[in-house]
Amino acid sequence: MIPKTTIEKQIASLSETLTPISEKMQIWAEKNIFIKWGVLSRGKFHCLDCAHSWKPDAKKASCQKYINCTACKGRLKVHQYNQAHFKEIEYFAVLDVCGGFQVVRIICSHKNMKKNFLPTYYHKEVMQHWINENGEVRTLSLGTNVFSQAYDAWKYYTPLEIRPKSFEASPKYRINPYKVYPSSKTISILKRNGFKGSFYGIAPQVLFTALLKDSHAETLLKTGQTHFLAHYLTSHSQRIRENWQAVKTCIRNSYKVKDFPLWEDYISLLRWFKKDLNNSDLVCPENLEKVHDRLVGKKRIIQRRKNIKELRAEIQQAQIAYEEQKKQFFGLEFNKENLSICVMESVHDFLEQGDMLRHCVFANEYYKKRNSLILSAKFENKPVETIEVALPSLEVLQCRGDKNKNSPHHKQILKLLSQNLYQIKKRLKNKKEERAET
After folding, report:
1. Of 69, 79, 133, 177, which is most buried, counting CB atoms within 10 Å of its CB?
2. DSSP string spanning 76-94?
3. Given a cut of 70, is residue 62 above it in pLDDT?
C-alpha cells in the first residue's frame, strides 16, 4: 500500500532511518529463542545444536522426551520423527523509539538443522508497529502468500509496506514474539502508565496500545492484577468491561481467578439474581465451582417454575433468532469411532444439554451469543461435553462436561474438533460470499 496521508508518509520515512537488526541481536536470538533439539537415528543420539552424536547408555534412554548432550551439555528435546532436515521458525521483537513513536519491530527467525552439521540461521524483519502517545498504531509489514493456509506465510523478497488501519483486526498483527530483546527502548509515557519491562504473555504491540488508550488495562497493570490483564487483552470471549464492578472487588481483595470463563459465567449468574457485586464474599468465593453450580441449579429451578406455555413460547421465539444466526452451520457433524461432535441446532437442545450435564449452557443463554458456535460432543450417542468455539477466530473457548469438569474423552474430543475446524471455517466463508452477492 502506497503511503497517502501525512502520518503514513511520516512513518514510511522514519522507518528508513531505523538501524538494521544488528549481528549482536541475531546472535542473542539464536541462543535464546529456539528449542535445542536432538534426534535418535540408527541407535545414536544426534545433537542438532552442536552436531555431536553418541550412543545412549541404556535402552530406556530411547523413550525419553528430553536428553542432555554429552558434548555441549545442552538439554535437548527429542524429535519425534527421524528425517534428513529439520526446521524451526520463531519470532523475537526489538523495541525502539523513533520520532516520538514507540516502535515494535518483529523479526522472524529460521533455524535449519541437519544431523552431523551445525545449524544455520536466517533472520528477517517482517513487521514494524508504530504507536503514538495516544495509543494509535500503524503497521508496516511484508506481503504474505494469500494462497497459503498459514496466515504468516511471508514473502521475504517484498519490502515493508504501510498497512491500513484495519490491519489491527488481522491475526498477523497479534503475532506474539517468543522473547523481546533485553536492551530495548520505550517512550516515557509507557513507564508512567505502569510498564516496567514485563509482558505477561501479551504481544508488546497489544500491551502498549492498551496501556496508552485504555484506562482499564492501565488500572489492572498498576494494581498488579496481571492475570486479569492477560485475560482482558488475549481472550476473544472476555467480559472484563461488562464485569468491571466485580473486577474492582477482586482488586480490592487481591483475589486471583484460576478459571476465567467459569468466573465470568458465575458473575453473570450473580447479576441475574441481582446480587451486590461489591460483596467480596460473593464475588471472590473460595470454591468457585461449588458456588457456580449451586447458582446454576437454583436458576434452573426458577426457570422450570415458569408457566410451561411461557417457556415454550420463549424457546420458540429464541429458536427463530438462533436459526437466523447459525443456520449455515446446521448439519455439521464430525465422527470418529464412538465419538461424535455436532452443532446444536435447537434452543431445546441447550435446555436438555444443560440439564444432563448440569452446567449453564441454557441458564446463561449461550444460544444468544452471536460470536460463538456451540457444539455437543457425544460418546455412544450420549452427551459428554459441550463446546464453545469463537467466531470467526475458531478459538476453542470452553469444552466442559458434567458439572463443568472434563470427561474421560476430553483429549479425544479436542483432537477430533481441531482436525475439523476447517469445516466450520469453510461455512463461515460461504456465508460471507452469500452476503457479498446480496
Report:
1. 177
2. EEEPSS--SEEEEEEEEEE
3. no
